[in-house]
User: Fold these one by one.
Assistant:
Number 1:
Amino acid sequence: MIILNEQEMWRCVSLDEIMGGIERAYEIHRAGNYVMPDRYVAGRDGNLMLYMPCFIDGAVGTKMLAEFPGNPAKGLPYLSGLMIVNDGETGTTKAILDGSVLTAMRTGASGGVAVKYLSAEHASSVGMVGCGTQGLHQLLFACHVRPITHIYLYDAYRKDYGPFMEKLRAKLDRPGIEITPCRDTRELAEKSQILISATQTTDPLYPDDEKLLEGKCFVAIGSWRPERRELPDAVSRLVKNVYTEMPYACEESGDLKIPLDTGVLIMDRVKYMEDLIADCKGGNPHPQNATTWFKSVGMGLYDITVADLICRKAEELGIGQRVQW
Ligand SMILES: NC(=O)c1ccc[n+]([C@@H]2O[C@H](COP(=O)([O-])OP(=O)(O)OC[C@H]3O[C@@H](n4cnc5c(N)ncnc54)[C@H](O)[C@@H]3O)[C@@H](O)[C@H]2O)c1
């Protein structure tokens, strides 16, 4: 069995390979060649444990994440956890990975894939609401797939953006990108062509203003509970369709459930990333410069396709700590 820490996981795979893992997850989902129960969530006193098993050909993965909202005030990460990879034939444990690093990698890559298929090819500005772990990785992938020259930041609880900007500069694979904090989300939306959010908010982050939000590419990562919502109704009104991972997202996320319940959005306009990608690959690209929206709740298939890739590379390259039970 191999145990892999953060540095070792990043040494195994490139950004393009991680995004390849996400596109493979969409292909497997579209073909129906997997077993993935709905995420099981156990909770106590506002603290949550998430269990996400998934079978694909050749491998089984289970991610366990702890989401403890009081952690940031204690200087600890909001999310932590483990990913266990089992052999698909024997069930033997093949590897244990850092679950929070895997989450940031695959969630960042799912945002990157959405930006690649839904944003204007020459988009040069991106706004990030929520400057935490997911925010950092969303920006890393967005800047990898688009010729970004300006990043705009907003975080309701961050007074000093210095440490976040330092971490971001160290991770970006291109130098010279200008990074600017904004005073509010209106300023951020005015300046950015791509708008990404990764927060725990229950109230929409942007003003409900169609004029302000028209023509932007939205990637909404944060809400995976029915009471949490990042985007205002204006986005539902502006887009032709919203793209997500699977039908379950409509129950799980307030970003979809609330506008569906109030009739601002209808089910016929909820579409799936896997079909959009298949369409694009079949020669039907998405129209550029329209308002577009990817709503992510994440899925165990992302975890196992990316973790499986990391395990194979770790075996091939001799990376990680070998452990005998
Ligand atoms: N879609 C997915 O697959 C997926 C994966 C992982 C995490 N998430 C979700 O993404 C969210 C962020 O996760 P994280 O690990 O980055 O957490 P984090 O605590 O590291 O970062 C969140 C940031 O958002 C900021 N924030 C919170 N409320 C805000 C508001 N109203 N306005 C502006 N900024 C605000 C916080 O100050 C913090 O800096 C969580 O809700 C998490 O559950 C989704």
Number 2:
Amino acid sequence: MKKRDYYEVLGVPRNASTDEIKKAYRDKAKRHHPDMNPQNKKEAEEKFKEVSEAYEVLMDPQKKQLYDQYGHDGVSQTFKGGGFTWDDFHHFDDLQDILGNLFGGSLFENFFGFTGRTQRQRAKRGGDIHVILSISLEDITGQIKKQFKINRNEACQQCNGQGGTDFSSCPQCGGQGQVRTQTQSFFGTFTSVSTCPRCRGSGQIIKTPCSKCGGEGRIKVPRTIEIKVPRGVGHKQYIVLRGEGHYGRGGKGNIIVEFEEKPHEYFERRGYDLYLRVFVPYSKLINGGSVDIPSLNNKKGKMKIPKGSSAPEIIRVRGKGMPQPGGGQGDLYVELNLQPLETTDKDLDKILDALKKYEGKPTPKKRK
Ligand SMILES: [Zn+2]
Ligand SMILES: [Zn+2]
């Protein structure tokens, strides 16, 4: 059988972009996959291999150049056996993207005679889990515990997180995890080293994938995590729970908990200080006394109003602000405001008239 032109096999023009080549391969790989053609599996296998070979060559700049210049004879020398085999194929990732969902990952086991589900996560650390935790000012006292739920990849118990029990050295890289590709070209011989596409760098392939996790080595588990909210922690600050993230064969990732502070009903936070406005009746501003104020610890707060206070006036209450990480507290600043009178009583005019003789004239306040 005469070898067909690669561009013709994929149905793309000679000046096709990589995106066009990818798209063409995507379509053809799906159409010719043997599992999609159970009636004539053998023929489909040939076609599938043919489009994959064309894809391998046209996606590799050096191989493509050789092919464009010298045709099949030019490029076939770059294949290990002098002709294309699956060992020369570098795009199992793409193939898994294209077909993975279609066949539930069975593609490699069924077709290539080896488990494409190699230990691709082996050297890879598990991912981090980001959590945004909503907290109130009350939660920041350093005594409060909070829980949140996550779905975490954990090591499969059955295979100890290895994806299987029966391993063999990767035939493509000889267990090295890396492959050297020598390419002859017009300009000389190029050697490039890349991660082995078959074992994805682990140097091993699983012969019998674990039946519980399907060879992934990990299983999603819902978990509830409890943390102590750090004392004095602020909006957008975060803590890292090392090794509590997703499992990966190269180690576990972290959980990153970011705090999102809920606005408080009464207090405004600035750093470790708190700001509060209270409305104080006229008589209390004049005579002094104490008023109830909200607090962060559920205890009733009280505050002294000095005799002869005015409004607005800011009173600093030391040590009644936010807890600080190393101990100590910020301050509380209370702004006194005049409580409006709640009456429509006719007698009010008389009372105010009577007060007038004690009032001074409106005066501008001197700054110093
Ligand atoms: Zn390998
Ligand atoms: Zn398993």
Number 3:
Amino acid sequence: MLLKKIELVNFRNYEQLSLSFAPGFNFITGDNAQGKSNLLESIVYLSTGKSYRGAHDVHLLRWQGDFFLIRGKIESNGRDFLLEVSYSPEKGKVLKINGVEKKKGREVWGLLKTVWFSPEDLNLVKGSPEGRREFLNQLLTQVSPLYAKSLQEYNKLVGQKNNLLKRKEDGFAGEKTSLLEVYNLQLVQIGSLILKSRLDCLEKLIPLARRFYRELSGGEILSARYHSTVEFATSSLEEIKRGFSKGLVEKKHEEEKKGYALVGPHRDELEIFVNGKSLRLFGSQGQQRTCVLALKLAAMEYFQLTGGEFPVLVLDEVTSELDESRREYLLRTIRGKSQVFVAGVDLSFLESFPWEKGEVSFFTVEDGKVKEAR
Ligand SMILES: Nc1ncnc2c1ncn2[C@@H]1O[C@H](COP(=O)(O)OP(=O)(O)O)[C@@H](O)[C@H]1O
Ligand SMILES: [Mg+2]
């Protein structure tokens, strides 16, 4: 997977930008608040349709602009194509592949595969379960169109069910009950697929993360447990469906009392341990950072395992927070696999690395303008 070129119009503080990238490492330096993260954000947006900093589309629009555009020339499995997203408050997002408009986001998101690591991600281990579910969702959405579709439908159903649960019965108790049953039947079908995909993914992902964590930490053992709100004895799809249905029956009254859906993958938790102790509760900052890095590297390998191609790796500021040995490890691990984008205020430590010709490009950013520095 290669992002060969990017063009931006009115995206954040970029009025107009056109840049070609190296197939290996692309280092982006500059003072604070010049546009380094904005550039990386545009790359991830082209991949997922979302800001990895959680910004709304309208905030990505340059203050003086009435639309923004991101266009990328991408090479995937030896074939080039142009991917284009534009946005305006009136029209919303307009998506194009090779100039041809696509109606569904699903046809576009995930074509450019990315794994990113930004300071916000340090919350992944420490923060609420939602962040860890989101990590799995983002990964699986990019890897599997079926997962992307299921997740979209599932979230919509959960929203509809929650609305229904919140409604006062006022003489439509019978109707409410039968409508809930309809929702629940669909939730079981789709939710079980989501759950099963996550379990299958974790089976591959966690051993990979464990290896990276062990090597990064000098011997500590990472493990993880997926706590599901659905109970099942074996992780076959049939068994999950059975457990899901059973759970919904058991929690019926509690769901009605609380007014929201309690059972299903939208309420699950991934717990991570180091040497058997919960990382969220007991991990040091260094251990948490190492864990996020190990998970991201594992995600990178997971893409390759499932799709045969390494994703584009986007690293915002994180290299400067790693000590020298971890930094070396990181560079060695990703070198020759993924195309990488690294942003940082000071990346001078990279200049002395024995790069091969054509492997790296250095860019400097100042006030929304990028120069290639050689
Ligand atoms: N929608 C926008 N329109 C114009 N400028 C913006 C917009 N959003 C953010 N900026 C500007 O972008 C700069 C921050 O860019 P960023 O890429 O986060 O910086 P850094 O180089 O430190 O990573 C700030 O100067 C901010 O004012
Ligand atoms: Mg930044």
Number 4:
Amino acid sequence: MPPAHEDVALHTFLRGDPATQLAWLTERGLPPATLLALHNACAQRCFFCAGPGTVSVPDRERTPRAAGLAQLAARPEGVTRLMIGGNEPTLHPDFPELLRAVRPAGFATVELMTNGADLAANAAEWAALGVVEVIVPLYGVAPASHDGVAGVPSFDHVVAGLDAAAAAGIRVSVHTLLLRRTLNELAALNDLVRARWRTRLGVALLRDKGSFAFAAEAPPFAAAVAALTAIREAARPLGIGTPPCLPTHPEPPPLVADLYFRSQALAFGPGCDGCTARERCAGVVVAYAGEVVALGGAGRTR
Ligand code: SF4
């Protein structure tokens, strides 16, 4: 069973073989693809993620090379789209070999979810091997704010990596978390992403994993709404796993980012009563369920 803060159905997808993953996506009207999820140690120390399962992964718990190759070899007929994710897949010792195996296995394109720290040195090579999109988090507009979240100096590497990816012809997708400590930079980050990489920022809500001081890090829902509302509507970030009562742009997020953030358990709260968006809403991350306010309906007011 997954941890309580994770969604059981999404867990089935993440742990599934390619045929299971394809069926899971098809059932939900999502495009055909499969995911290669690599479990290994990450070099960053993001406060919401760093723990025994991500910082120091013993060799015996790392995704074996054979399992990665088997996942590629099991590509369902007709599926040419591969997503790669995990803790930090680019640091898996077998990542280069696995990436070289992608095209021979029959995949045409790779969408890579990475922290971006190693993009600058590798973007051109990865593009040649099939990477068409990188999905990268950026937590602020300066080293102090980004690195404060990431736990290690990485802002300059990530920005250089995104530049290199764009120069190599890779589509760049940038997302951030709505955090109490960086909410005042949201508009500037949105402007940076739009101006520098000609793309739309994605935003997600923090989930409470019980491993950090959630109340100290998560802004009130109303503050997140206000920060997004302050950005003109046409320029707003797109929401990743967020409910319609958070004012974001309706464009869908990158599929692998959407799936990653769908892994958080969602719920409805008392404020959802009478919400006009409820039929198209999957809920909000559990920790925020008590704060949402119905859209256009008779829900409670705060
Ligand atoms: S149903 Fe609840 S979580 Fe969904 S949009 Fe409405 S108020 Fe927000």
